[in-house]
Automatic annotation (TrEMBL):
SUPFAM superfamilies for the chain: NAD(P)-binding Rossmann-fold domains
CC per GO annotation: cytoplasm
Source organism of this protein record: Streptomyces paromomycinus
The name this protein goes by in its record: Epimerase
MF GO annotations: aldehyde dehydrogenase (NAD+) activity
Start and end residues of each NAD-dependent epimerase/dehydratase domain: 15-219
Domain of life according to the entry: Bacteria
Length: 328
């Protein structure tokens, strides 16, 4: 990790979930001054400045990003609050970043595209969201790009498919998969095991967002962050089983219903997005890879690293973890 000099540009990461924390680590490795911002101020990393701020407050947000060259919006909002909270949060963050004279990099999703009928998704795919959250995300993205076009501040969007990787718990390839794989339990799969489904490694999310933060000429549009070719869910689970080296069962939910950590409240909100698991969802990141010369982490390598992270995490939680025979 390169030590930042006092004169190094300041990069401010809003949100300290898996994406924000992994991004902050990547920026520190690259020698930038890094400030992380969350409600508690306890989400910082060694070498980063940790700030507590309520980003719903215009005054607090401006103070949190003061002096930034680049601001990264990685704030996550609970599913049941997204439609209500995210538009107001967007306005505050855009205003704060503009006041700081900063560039804004937004961590984005595939929701604006809506159902694709299984057609691979490129950056040129039409936005046909049918869900409340998808339509809301599309409206936000249009507003971000309008702020860029109006000259208020440079804005770029980095889109990813479902996350997986170290620290990623709340994902369809996260806490309902890897603990079961390592303890011989039952893993969850949604929709169909035999449909292709893209998963973006959290390390590639971080590398991609960090790169966008340094590429002002690439702003004013959405980019698909580096993502390995889409496997079927069955193929993903086979890799998990190989790397974990422990037999486990799989339960497939053909329709949204509560299961394990995905309680009734969550599934009620997620139901409108369940189409992602009943049709092929393939995100194509060729444009990003060509433009920036950055290739995605091979799925086998990403799964291996994720299994090892979960193995250590489960031991910390006091779980009985199988020794396993796989390799990372």
């Amino acid at each position: 990790m390169s030590a930042a000099t006092p004169s190094a540009p300041l990069h401010v990461v809003l949100g300290t979930g898996p994406a924000g924390t992994t991004l902050a680590e990547e920026l520190l490795r690259q020698g930038f001054r890094v400030r992380t911002v969350d409600r508690s101020g306890r989400g910082g990393l060694p070498g980063a400045e940790a700030v507590a701020a309520d980003l719903g407050s215009p005054v607090a947000a401006r103070e949190a990003v003061a002096g930034a060259e680049v601001v990264y919006h990685c704030v996550n909002v609970a599913y049941e609050l997204q439609v209500e909270v995210m538009p107001a949060l967007q306005k505050v963050i855009v205003d704060a970043a503009a006041a700081a004279g900063a560039r804004l990099v937004v961590m984005d999703t595939l929701y604006p595209y809506g159902p694709s009928g299984g057609v691979p998704l490129t950056e040129d795919a039409p936005w046909r969201a049918t869900s409340r959250k998808g339509r809301m995300r599309a409206q936000l993205d249009r507003a971000y790009l309008a702020a860029h076009d109006a000259g208020r501040l440079p804005v770029v969007l980095g889109r990813a498919a479902d996350f997986y990787g170290p620290r990623v718990l709340n994902s369809t390839l996260g806490g309902t998969t890897f603990p079961a794989a390592l303890t011989g339990g039952t893993a969850l799969a949604l929709g169909s095991l035999d449909l292709p489904h893209s998963f973006t490694y959290i390390g590639d999310v971080a590398r991609g967002l960090a790169r966008l933060g340094q590429e002002p000429d690439a702003y004013g549009k959405a980019w698909h962050l580096p993502t390995a070719p889409a496997p079927t869910v069955r193929e993903v689970l086979a890799l998990v089983r190989e790397r974990a080296g422990v037999p486990f069962e799989t339960e497939v939910l053909a329709e949204p219903r509560p299961w394990g950590p995905f309680d009734e409240a969550f599934m009620a909100e997620y139901a409108e997005l369940f189409y992602q698991h009943t049709e092929a969802q393939t995100m194509v990141s060729d444009a990003f890879e060509r433009r920036f010369g950055m290739t995605p982490t091979p799925l086998a390598d990403g799964i291996g690293a994720t299994v090892e992270w979960y193995r250590e995490w489960l031991v910390e939680q006091g779980a009985a973890v199988g020794a396993g025979e796989g390799t990372a």
